[in-house]
Write a structure and sequence with these properties.
The complex is a heterodimer. By secondary structure, chain A is mostly helical. Chain A has one helix at residues 2-68. By secondary structure, chain B is mainly α. Chain B is built from 15 helices and 2 strands. In chain B, strands 1-2 form a two-stranded antiparallel sheet. Chain B starts with 24 loop residues before the first helix and ends with a helix. Classes of the chains: A mainly alpha, B mainly alpha. Chains A and B meet through α1 of A and α1 and α6 of B. Chain A: Belongs to the BRK1 family. Chain A: This is Protein BRICK1. Chain A: It is found in: Cytoplasm, Cytoskeleton. Chain A: InterPro entries: BRICK1.
Chain lengths: 75, 540
């Protein structure tokens, strides 16, 4: 009986080892995916903030340009 | 449940079937699982690249904007250092006249549309089931519509809203036009005057805007020039109304008379001509034909003045009928009198002082009748008389009125009046325009002695030719007008559809433009309402 156990047991042991390896790999993949999502989200939020600041700056610069340059008169 | 944007492809690692004929199944499963893991890593890396690409693109756009801003800031910095308050020209008027600052109000449009769909979603969309290929049937449709649109149309709701908005703008425009027309109908006579006023107003407004509130000149002064205009305007419609009354019966040659004098004087025997528009039909009114010198009369200066002398006594009774028009005409009579109504044999053409709306040649005809009663007592009211003899007032004044009154009353019946008083000696025959004959002049002409007949026929032919020449341009003008009107109507029918399409073309599939157009129509409506009210105030 020990002889029968060995190959099967060895296989099962091996299988368990493989599965653990696979499990580790897939969890890493999931972590990578998670990281990518959160990176994407945070990047987008920061870029949106940047966008707001840029538009505010653009409007201010437009106003200052209008103040500084000699504009056209109505008639 | 949120839509999954990116999904890593082999979802289940070890669910595939184990192929037959394999002894070590566990290893087989392990190997397939590992292969699936590798595929998953592959899709994961693809998704990661996609994510970073999107982020990079956005960051890049911000980088470009930032660079632009940086350049503008640099330019501004340089400009600000160059600013010098001493050099700067500042005039109080210029401050108010400067174009007001308007920030760029660009609205983001089409934010969530087909073009802005991210790539993974596009891929997912393509992996979905397609709608049935109903487009094959489009060629068999009669109305040339897209067959698939009846099954599924992504732009359906937008088109619906667009049609609704355009319809609303059109309705508002029509309402505006109706209101304007109502205003027009209410204040018809002064319409042209009003338009001129409005064109002037803008400049006045701008000039007012140049000053600050404290420095603006008194606005009460400005309406004064318009009062004069309104009063002048009030005269013309009266003139026109009276003239139109009198002109109803006028021959077409009446407006032509101003053109006649410029033509060579018709010197038949070197005689001045008095041409009158044959509005003498209106002479039928009893006692109306008091001779006011016709402002529309073209020929003869002094003769008319001389005629006016006899007419003046009759003028006052006529003035009651004539109204405002006769007033100026009487003045014109007096004016000509002032010129010295000496009878002269020299042919002169009479140019009326007042502007000649087709007028009241009736009075002129009357005057002619009165003065020439000796020679042409039976002259029909519409006769245009040509004075060829010097005027002797003394004997004639009593006679003409007596002759005159019966003549108009008789002419409608067609029977010539009673035998007119014999013409005073020395008075040359007068010429009667053929138009006058047309009324009924044949009979009276024949009744006169043989003497007047011969010269009258010559004059008649000449004058007839002249009048015909004069008539033609008028009729041509009228026919041209009619033709233009007809053409206009036809144009509308033919080009209605084209105009409709042309109106729709420049709209563009833009929510912002459509909405702005509608709002503009609404604002202009309110503006026109207030403007209309202002116009009403002005006209009053």
């Amino acid at each position: 009986m020990a002889g029968q156990e060995d190959p099967v047991q060895r296989e099962i042991h091996q299988d368990w080892a493989n599965r653990e390896y696979i499990e580790v790999t897939t969890s890493s993949i999931k972590k990578i995916a998670d990281f990518l999502n959160s990176f994407d989200m945070s990047c987008r939020s920061r870029l949106a903030t940047l966008n707001e600041k840029l538009t505010a700056l653009e409007r201010r610069i437009e106003y200052i340009e209008a103040r500084v340059t000699k504009g056209e008169t109505l008639t | 449940m949120p839509l999954v944007k990116r999904s890593i492809e082999p979802r289940h690692l070890c669910r595939g079937a184990v192929p037959d004929g394999v002894t070590s199944e566990l290893e087989c499963v392990t190997n397939s699982t590992l292969a699936a893991i590798i595929k998953q890593l592959g899709s994961l890396s693809r998704h990661a690249e996609d994510i970073f690409g999107e982020l990079f693109n956005e960051a890049n756009s911000f980088y470009m904007r930032m660079n632009n801003l940086q350049e503008r800031v640099d330019i501004l910095a340089v400009k600000v250092t160059q600013l010098d308050s001493t050099v700067e020209e500042v005039s109080l008027q210029d401050i108010n006249m400067r174009k007001a600052f308007k920030s760029s109000t660009i609205q983001d449009q089409q934010v969530v549309s087909r073009t802005s769909v991210p790539n993974p979603v596009v891929e997912m969309y393509h992996r979905c089931d397609k709608p049935p290929p109903l487009n094959i049937l489009s060629t068999y449709r009669d109305d040339k519509k897209d067959a698939l649109k009846f099954y599924t149309d992504p732009s359906y709701f937008f088109m619906l809203w667009k049609e609704k908005m355009l319809q609303a703008t059109e309705d508002k425009r029509k309402e505006k036009r109706r209101q304007k027309e109502q205003h027009k109908q209410v204040e018809d006579p002064g319409r042209e005057v009003k338009k001129v006023r409005k064109a002037r107003n803008r400049r006045q407004e701008w000039n007012m805007m140049a000053y600050d509130k404290e420095f603006r000149p008194d606005t009460r002064l400005t309406p004064s020039p318009y009062h004069g205009m309104s009063s002048e305007g009030s005269l013309s419609p009266d003139n026109r109304s009276v003239a139109s009354d009198m002109g109803e019966l006028s021959y077409p040659s009446s407006p032509n008379h101003p053109s006649q004098p410029p033509s060579a004087p018709h010197p038949i025997d070197g005689v001045p001509h008095l041409t009158q528009t044959p509005q003498t039909q209106s002479l039928d009114r009893g006692g109306y034909p008091r001779p006011n010198l016709p402002s529309g009369v073209v020929a003869g200066g002094r003769h008319i003045a001389s005629l006016g002398r006899t007419q003046l006594p009759h003028a006052p009774p006529a003035s009651s009928e004539g109204g405002a028009l006769n007033g100026p005409r009487q003045q014109s009579v007096k004016d000509y009198r002032a010129y010295g109504g000496q009878p002269s044999a020299i042919p002169e053409y009479f140019t009326p002082p007042a502007p000649p709306p087709p007028p009241p040649l009736i009075p002129s005809a009357q005057t002619a009748f009165d003065s020439t009663s000796s020679s042409s007592p039976i002259l029909p009211p519409g006769a245009v008389v040509v004075m060829s003899r010097p005027y002797s007032p003394s004997p004639t004044p009593p006679a003409p009125p007596a002759n005159y009154v019966p003549s108009p009353s008789h002419t409608p019946s067609g029977a010539p009046p009673a035998a007119p008083p014999p013409p005073p000696p020395g008075l040359p025959p007068s010429h009667i325009l053929p138009l006058a004959h047309a009324i009924g002049g044949e009979a009276p002409a024949t009744r006169k002695g043989q003497m007047p007949m011969i010269p009258i026929s010559d004059a008649r032919s000449d004058l007839l030719a002249a009048i015909r020449r004069g008539v033609l341009p008028i009729s041509n003008a009228r026919s041209e007008l009619l033709a233009a009107i007809r053409r206009g109507i036809q144009l509308r029918k033919v080009q209605e559809q084209r105009e409709q399409e042309a109106k729709r073309e420049p709209v563009g599939n833009d929510v912002a433009t459509i909405l702005s157009r509608r709002i503009a129509v609404e604002y202009s409506e309110s503006d026109s309402d207030s403007g209309g009210e202002d116009n009403g105030e002005w006209s009053d």
